[in-house]
Amino acid sequence: MKKIFTLILLSAVVFNSCKKPAPTTPEFTNVSTERKSLMFDFTGLQCGICAGMLPSWNAMLGDHQYNAIGLSVHCGVQDSLDNNFTLWMANYFNVTGTPSWAEGKNMTLDTYDNMKSSMETTVKQKADIGIGVIRSLSGTTMSIKTHTVLFNDLSGDYNIAVYVIENGVRAVQISTVMTHNDVLRGGANGMFGTSLFSGAQSKGQTFDQTFTYNIGTQGTDYVNAANLRAVVVVYRMNGTDPKEVINCNEN
Length: 251
Hints:
251 residues; 21% helix; globular
């Protein structure tokens, strides 16, 4: 009897040691607990004023690297960094000339100084929503996992949008080779995203989603895949129009 019990016990140990560990969800270590500003810079490589403003734009983002995110939206004439997505976005904002700017608190075109002032106001406000982002690249497919959490009770229509940007792009600005960061390459789920939730939601509610983005062809759609980043934005919507960026984050 003792031998039988020992065999049963040994079998149980072997069985348990062979069991595969339960799959775990990715750990989001970068959930934004503070409110971040999203800024749009509509620019072009043939724009002389844009060339002069580029150092200021880069310096501003460097000074606010933890609480502000820039989208460099190329939409100029004969601009190798524009694409159908950036031209689509520029058309929505009714951009008639570069440079032009907008900030997520006020989704309309503004002056550089007003955009910067709006950004400085936004980052002082408390966040209603936190966003975590994990991105991975396999071949030409970028996978973006998102985790959003509500810090307050909210009601209305909210969208989540995923953009892909590239840093460290070397391109001729007028007649000088300059480094361009935050170059908008495209979006995984449309210009202003898809529904995150609609109606009333309670504080503490969380949402986990996964998006995929085809990065395209090197040399045409991007320069260095290692420099691609994902930007996740939550918009408060009014029908199909974004009224305000509630928060954003990148990875």
